[in-house]
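Running this now, will post back.
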Amino acid sequence: MRLWLVWVAFISLPTYAANLETPSNLNNWLSHVATATQQLNYDGTYIYQHGDSVEISHIAHRKDNSGDLTKLDALSGPPHTFVRVNDAVYCYIPDGNQVKVEQHQHHKFFPAMLPVPTTPLAALYTLKSLGRAHIADHDSFGISLTPHDEYRYGYAVWADIGTGLLLKLVKFDARQDVAGQFTFTQVDIGQAPERKQFQSGFAGKKPVTMPSREAQIKTHWRINKLPDGFYLVMETQRDLPGKLQNVIHQVYTDGLATVSLFIEPLAQLGSNPPRGLSSHGMMSLYARPIGSFQVTALGEVPAVTVMMMADNLSQEATK
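Update: finished.
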């Protein structure tokens, strides 16, 4: 039965595996990579390098008739595990004899970083072949994505030429220097991990479900003029530690670049709330007041992007 499911998954994808030719249509190849990465079964280890930091994680993904399962185990830093069951994401954090269980509204895991469909990216980035490379013992093909405007940075992606699984994603800063990269060091593709592998791994500890600190809402806060290609993908109300009142959290994306906007009452920030622009690496942060509220925009985008979003945010009149 397992081999039959794997075969069904593969026949729904373009047959690059049949001839291992170098893709000639880059838009079609990128679309194939995005779809294949969400459909394929895989089990591997990757590293995420950014600045002086190196994070190591194990990721497993299983897709079958029962749904979509993903598990990420942090192999470096404080121990924690994410488990996604379809659209529900749970974070397990061990604490002595207990394990705290938190539910999250939104979370992307490498290698499922590309949007489906990828069509809008073609209008925002110029695609260029980077040729073939050997990554994590897989023959891969690479594409660079150079932005058309000043509102986003560039990327490069490499994917297994046989299956389309994304193996490496590189982020570039404004100087075209590498600012961060995800890279598989080892990955098995096609064999579905056993369902029992997607348990938290903390069976010996008492689970403590933490009250949810965020809820989906719809507010009247909207950006009147967005950078081309960006759209609102999530809006929640969050109970953040140290805050007397909840904070509105909006997430905007162009499919690759992401910006978060936080909106909260000025009164809870004291007499000297942060103001202005700051940047570190790819990360830009811009804070300003709007009436009796404080708005903070941050993301791995150029400064002009967070400034444009925060400066054009306003409350729509209620009908």
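The longest strand covers residues 53-64. More later if anyone needs it.
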